[in-house]
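Lecture 7 notes: from sequence to structure.
We start with the chain below.
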Amino acid sequence: MTTNGLTAGTADTGTKATLPYPGSEATVGQLLSLADEYFKAAYGLLPQVSRIDPRTSSAPARLCAIHAVECYLNAFLLFQDVSREEVRGLQHNLAKRAELAVAKGLKLKVKTHVHLLRLNDQREYLVVRYGPERVSGLTELNRVFATLKEIGVKVAASIRSQPYEPSDPRFKPYW
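Predicted structure tokens for the same chain:
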């Protein structure tokens, strides 16, 4: 059975659909736009953080913030011609993303760079998704948002400051 020209899986044979990996065809512009949306979502969730239980109630905002950081770094790396396979191979490792982005020219404050390493070492991306019992070890919420803001601003400025070439496949169809 086919759907839109792609092979769909069937229960009889146990085969899986041969769809491209999600994001494997996304342009730099699309990733930047997605990161911007998660940035806005993270800030939009801040008013819902409870003073009574700020660590647990901040999990949705933290998750959006961390994911926005990952998307911004992905966009930057792809813009710097890092292969999609290499970026995908980083999984959710923000430390490796940061190291590679810095090597490709992204200038980060020392505190931001150290925070990205800590986010990775403490596995905060997983804790905010699945580990409410470990939220006491999370970094301060203001540090998470300072990291998000710096990376969002610097990556967007770096990418958007480049002259747009209509033939550049990294940007289509965003701009």
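Points to note: The helical segments are 28-45, 54-57, 59-79, 84-89, 94-103, 110-121, 124-130, 141-160. Residues 1-11, 170-175 have pLDDT under 50 and may be disordered.
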